[in-house]
Design brief:
With 299 residues, the protein is of the alpha+beta class. 34% of the residues lie in helices and 25% in strands. It has one domain: (Glycosyl)asparaginase (Glutamine Phosphoribosylpyrophosphate, subunit 1, domain 1), CATH 3.60.20.
Length: 299
């Protein structure tokens, strides 16, 4: 039996500045449309999820790729991940300097190495050797990122509760699932800091029975609770209640960590899904079958 293709994305949980609202909605809709086009053309879930994430990595609205935020030293360090359900293979990178298309490097780790996670210089060297990735400060710097960094550096702004990370989940017509994500991390983070995004089970997960999930928000809180796997495990016992289960977990973790931003997207093998967040905003996009993509700032 063929599955109805589904593509769902998020553009980060947190607070999105008013001047970026329209761009965030348009960006997530464009990402969902890009992934949907791959699925409707008969493509697999990996290609669809990567296509969606790449749209958001190239969109300076989001904290990934070309819109990534800076660390304490004014440098860029990127994390990304991908996982597919059919064989539980995953690939991730962490702390890679200034790369516009980090999700492609994560996919290279998954498909061309025997490892699951590569970091820093080693991951960059792999990408350069294989001709994967656009590297360099000019590839990722934006005026927005510079202004946000200067605001924190000069004490005019805080570095908390801003929307971060992009993620995509895809269900293809063969019933296979994929989760993919990319991030510039936390604004003004210590150099070398890694959050939940590249950590399997915390920031992402894909399983043929449990489904797929990508998380967003404060990485330290999310990884402590292994959120991506936990929500899928709990929802497996009550699939029809996946939205309530996901919302409850996000709220619980957010409250426990001082009401920080927490959000996620989750997708079951039967197409049941959850888009939920404990934050002011979480931009999202959704495309089911050949229906026009939807998107919004809250769910």
């Amino acid at each position: 039996m063929r599955s109805t293709p589904v593509l769902v994305v998020h553009g980060g949980s947190g607070t999105i500045a008013a001047e970026n609202h329209a761009a965030a909605v348009a960006g997530t809709r464009a990402a969902a449309a890009a992934g949907q086009a791959v699925l409707l053309a008969g493509g697999d879930c990996e290609d669809a999820a990567v296509a969606a994430v790449r749209v958001m990595e190239d969109d300076p609205t989001f904290n990934a790729g070309r819109g990534a935020c800076m660390n304490r030293d004014g440098d860029f360090e990127h994390d990304a991940a991908i996982m597919r359900s059919r064989d539980l293979r995953s690939g991730a990178i962490a702390g890679v300097p200034a790369i516009r298309d980090a999700v492609l490097l994560a996919r290279l780790v998954m498909e061309q190495t025997r490892h699951c996670l590569l970091i820093g210089a080693g991951a960059e060297a792999l990408g350069r050797t294989q001709g994967v990735g656009h590297f360099g400060r000019d590839e990722v710097w934006t005026a927005k990122a510079e202004a946000m960094y200067r605001g924190v550096l000069e004490g005019r702004a805080a570095a908390d509760n801003r929307a971060d990370t992009v993620g995509a989940l895809a269900l293809d017509s063969d019933g296979h699932l994929c989760a993919a994500s990319s991030t510039g991390g936390v604004l003004f983070k210590l150099p070398g800091r890694v959050g939940d995004t590249p950590l399997c089970g915390a920031g992402f997960y894909a399983h043929p029975v449990l489904g797929a999930c990508c998380t967003t928000g404060l990485g330290e809180a999310i990884l402590t609770h292994v959120l991506a796997f936990d929500v899928l495990r709990r929802a497996d016992a009550e699939p029809a209640n996946i939205v309530a289960i996901a919302a409850s977990l996000c709220a619980e973790i957010s409250a426990r960590w001082g009401h920080v931003a927490i959000g996620l997207i989750a997708l079951r093998p039967d197409g049941t899904l959850a888009i939920t967040h404990a934050s002011e905003h979480m931009s999202w996009g959704l495309a089911i079958g050949d229906a026009p993509p939807e998107s919004g700032l809250r769910r």
